[in-house]
Records
---
Amino acid sequence: MSIITVKNLKKSFGKLEVLKDINAEVQEKEVICVIGPSGSGKSTFLRCINRLEEISGGEVVINGHNITDPKININKVRQQVGMVFQQFNLFPHKTVLENITLGPIKILSISKEAAEKMALELLDKVGLKEKASSYPGELSGGQKQRAAIARALAMNPKIMLFDEPTSALDPEMVGDVLEVMKQLAKEGMTMVVVTHEMGFAREVGDRVIFMDGGYIVEENEPNQLFGNPQHERTKAFLSKVL
Amino acid sequence: MKGDETVDIIVAALPILLKGLQVTLYIFVIAIILGFLIGLVVALFKLAPIKLLNWIAKVYVDAIRGTPFIVQLFFIYFGVNSLHLVSLNNTTAGIITVAINAGAYFAEIIRAGIQSIDKGQTEAARSIGFTEAQTMRYVVLPQAFRRMLPTITNQSIISLKDTSLLSVIGIADLTQQGQIQASATFEAFKIWLAVGIIYFIIIYLLTLLANFVERRIQVR
């Protein structure tokens, strides 16, 4: 059974229809990369998966929970879906460690000691153990993003969503963040990654989705999609970015 | 010596003036805490997605901002008491007036503070699984308060000075005691100078305290 099922998803902002008819499935442990020109709706699509955007039509089912059902406890579902943002969105008034432990302590009611132990393990994993007591303002962009990944992982999610995680980074910082994401993919995390990093999509993605104009134009395994695109729009996009 | 005389008069009046200061501070502290709580609730009313609450908050803030403090004081002390539904003594009426007056200004300060926090903060908190209330409590308000502190200090100082108007309904605050001393001693210049200095010192200490707190909680 697929862990994410999207059926006839529509999303409008006022009169502007951003997602027109999106159908997609993600299997457990799959890494899906979503590419496409800006304004194609790829970020909005990602944000509909944890309902950060209210869904205008269609259905999104996450791990058996239909999040378009108005009676669903969306907070419970979001605990299983980690999200990493382009702008990191770390909590500036809390240390890196507190950023990571806040959710587990307040939502999962884990003891402070246990949460801190887990947070330190996660920080070790993303290579930031020595920054535990720093504040986000003291970190570089790449460090912030790795801390943000650790924060999302602390809730022990089944799915991780990445919304252009390296787009706000200086070029020399991108590698470290991608490395952490690769590691995560290797460990079998289900991931949906909106990205402009074609190299990453090609290397790590199990499947690549190309979006344009509010539709999924084409999806395929990376070698096929990058090597032998079927649609004109995919070809035109790839010829500009590759 | 003329200078010694001035000091003598002020020293003689000082115990009574300080008793008045006690009343001023007592009213100020209770009223400012109440005012802050009112402000917080009204700010949340303003931001709530419920039209009725928005409207209540707007009417309250507009009514307070659009009328003089002294009229609000008379309305509560003389106006409300004249209905014989409740009987407010002057201290209670004074505290209520300062609280609801400060509350309206605090509401605007807190609303603006909350709105100044980047939307990404809320999204990050919600994406982790926090409810709207938890997001407010753990993520938005702590950051908003740090930003609001200078303006909150400012409003608190204004409210402290407003308490001097409570002397007109017979509250024995610092200003009222000053008035009594000035007429008893016929030394208006010296007494009012002393009263002014006492207010100044208190407000200066309040500013220092605020600066200290601000430095302690600064976002790094």
---
Amino acid sequence: MARVETDPISTQLEEERDGADGAEPIKPASILLSELVAHLRDNRTELREEWARRITEAQLLTAMNKEEIFAEATSVYDNYVEALKTGTFEALQAYARNLSERIIPRGVETHEVVWIVLLLRDVLARSLFAKYQADFTKLNRILDAYEPAANRIANTVAVGFVQERERIIREQQEAIRELSTPVLQVRERLLILPIIGVIDPHRARQLTEQLLRGIRMNRAKVVVIDITGVAAMDATVANHLVQTVEASRLLGATVIVTGLSPEIAQTIVNIGVDLGKMNTVGDLQGGIEQAERLLGYKVVPFAEAS
Amino acid sequence: MEVPILKQGAFLIATIQAALTDADLLHLRTALLQQVVRCRSRGVIVDVTSLDVMDSFASRTLREIAQMIHLRGAETVIVGIQPEVAFAMVQLGLKLEDVATALDLEEGLAHLKQKFESPA
């Protein structure tokens, strides 16, 4: 990686050398880079403080307190300098991932992370300007060495953060999917299936399969599907629901659908899905009572029974 | 392959044991319609537990069997449809409307018994 970064620069220097008058011996990029690293090391305390100050000033990382920001800034700074020095990004990548893992749960946003990394880039560039302001050619060359590496570092950190976020989102989606379709037995031969959230074709399929397995395993006669938690329904979803009901019936189970909201009732009638063959009851309680009637249960208060 | 039809009290039980050709299905239909009157049966159970594929012809024939047997004065219950088969059927739009279904043979028998015991 170091070679990939330095090669274009040395070629550039080569070209410059051809045109130069030879006033000053031109140093190769690696030496410039180590000079740069030495500068950053020497000024570690001030630059780090300057950076932390700029972060607080820009009102970033409001989720963390000053000490935490400073501590993180220190380790990011050291990793940054290390990456500049070695030209390898694996350690930084691993660190970025680790950092993201820690700060994402605290509500740190992508724009904050990108901004912070760019702030560091800016702080360091300014210190270089200050140091080499007398010698413009040298500043130019130092920046030539600094820019690609700095850009790459900024890129690595930002991409690492986004990747970590996406990984978390994927994991959560998976978890939600598994949690989202519980088939519960309420009584002997009576199952309930509460549906919460959005039903997409994938989930509808999983839901039906799980329900059919549940019916077979528990030898259910009646199933109450409660859709109180379903916010919206379109023709596709309604048809999925009808399919679930039909499939359950083929296994000999009666399905009662409960909790259709007024909006969903209107939508279903408007789009003309035939729900005529479906048993519907207002709420979950009513559905369970109806199911108990179908199964021949009668729930009476204890006093009345004795 | 011939489907055995067993008499069990007032009911007939036809257990399909392997995938059937269309001709076998039609043969089953004829045999059931003859036997249901000969045995004075009040109910017929068709057990499809071992079927792992149900095409449109099979499901239409099962539906016709149910309707014809109804005309001959008895009730039909289809039992033992596998969950995967049920799922595939509804996706293909094969719904076996107006045909009674039950989880397995035991449930089917219970269904018929309940139907004939209650005066309604």
